[in-house]
Design brief:
Layout lengths: L1 E6 L5 E6 L5 H7 L19 E4 L1 H4 L7 H8 L8 E3 L13 E4 L4
Parallel strand pairs: 1-5
Antiparallel strand pairs: 1-2, 3-4, 3-5
Length: about 100
């Protein structure tokens, strides 16, 4: 199991565990964190699983694809550290890393 930290919109940090190769979105959802809507269930057709990754985390996840980039372009809260959590797979290298839930558009 991989353990990550999730920072909610209220600033609370929640530790979440998930199996390797499960998406960060699925781990957050399965932990019962209701702020992350993930309306499309990981089909890359919405951006309701928008999170911010740390600079040290950005180098550990797969590069952003064109579809993800296009969806994030529609967000008023996009930053250089924005990612869709449905596109980030848990790996041992992410153990202990932090993901911040972005404000809702």
């Amino acid at each position: 199991m991989v353990q990550i930290n999730i920072v909610t919109r209220e600033g609370e940090t929640i530790r979440v565990k998930g199996a390797e190769d499960v998406s960060v979105m699925e781990a957050i959802r399965d932990a019962g964190v209701g702020e992350l809507l993930a309306l499309c269930g990981g089909a890359r057709s919405c951006a309701t699983c928008h999170v911010y990754v740390g600079r040290d985390t950005a180098d550990l996840v797969a590069p952003m694809g064109e579809d993800e980039n296009d969806l994030l372009d529609a967000s008023d809260y996009r930053t250089e550290l924005s990612r869709l959590s449905c596109q980030l797979k848990l790996t041992r290298g992410l153990d202990g890393h932090t993901f911040v839930i972005a404000p809702e558009d």
